[in-house]
Automatic annotation (TrEMBL):
Organism this protein belongs to: Cecembia rubra
Protein name as it appears in the record: NADPH:quinone reductase-like Zn-dependent oxidoreductase
Domain Enoyl reductase (ER): 10-320
InterPro entries given in the database record: ADH-like_C (IPR013149), ADH-like_N (IPR013154), ER (IPR020843), GroES-like_sf (IPR011032), NAD(P)-bd_dom_sf (IPR036291)
SMART domains (alphabetical): PKS_ER
GO molecular function: NADPH binding; oxidoreductase activity, acting on NAD(P)H
SUPFAM superfamilies: GroES-like, NAD(P)-binding Rossmann-fold domains
Pfam families from the UniProt entry: ADH_N, ADH_zinc_N
Presence of the UniProt keyword Cell wall biogenesis/degradation in the record: no
Taxonomic lineage: Bacteria, Pseudomonadati, Bacteroidota, Cytophagia, Cytophagales
UniProt keyword terms in alphabetical order: NADP, Oxidoreductase
Amino acid sequence: MKQVVFYKTGLPKEVLQLEEAPMPEPKAHEVRIKVTARNINPSDIMFIRGMYGITPKLPSSAGFEAVGIVDKSDQKGSIAVGTKVIFTTIGTWKEYVCVPSNMVIPSPPGMPDEVACQAFVNPLTAYGMLESSGLKDGQWLLVTAAASAYGKLVIQMAKQKGIKVACTVRRDEQKELLEKLGADLVINTEREKLQKVILEQTQEGVDVVFDAVGGVLGARALASLKTGGKMMVFGLLSLENIPLNSGLLIFKNIKVEGFWLTTWMAGLSPESTQIAFRTVFTHLLSQKVKVDVEATFRLEKFGEALEAYEKEGRNGKIILTS
């Protein structure tokens, strides 16, 4: 089978390579999946660079999220051969992977592979952060890097709850796109002062910030919170830590906390987990919440896919198919 692997961490274009590997054999509790599609997430790139919360065991394949067809069941036969499943695991940039049977989710009938392969990480992160935020109808949420796949999802989900959404972007052409999705306020932080616009439009500041950027923008977003507000940090696209203003934390009683999907899901009850998946899948199937695809590439064309991923102005996911 074909797989994309790296033997040392670094920039993807410098360390990734395509190679042939033996067909994996599942353990008694695992199913083997013929992967049909996987999307490229920022976490995939951070993992390859050795900058993610999980350290790669080298050599390693890339990718955490995918959809595929079960071609060999576990010893109990708990999932029928031929079942299309959504799953996460370390190393999805392969033609075949083995995954514990209790870690895969049957794909809803009628969901295209291009949607199913991105139905886990970003949609569930958006859902989980909104649930954890405590935001109510009429309150303000600020989302940094809101033109991302995650940002567009959280805008759509927040609007269904009556939450007002402010967004940061870096290009004016992204404003109309996010406004059509339901954003109440879109700020180009390359030309506008974030705190000034937020205060003018909300009077007091926002109730909650979802920050994926860190660095200086993260600090400005923090300063845009109202008294008693909360920042939830789930990414570091700038690769720079937020320079925290201790005075803001003290005198405005502001809270800063991290969010990682893996940790959040580990704390859910089985019933809450089912509700989360059912809610997200219903949104995606009904197209009340839509995901965008920019382009698809065969797995062996991963180099071209990475170039497309890094393209300035990209508005949809890059998908790798088998």
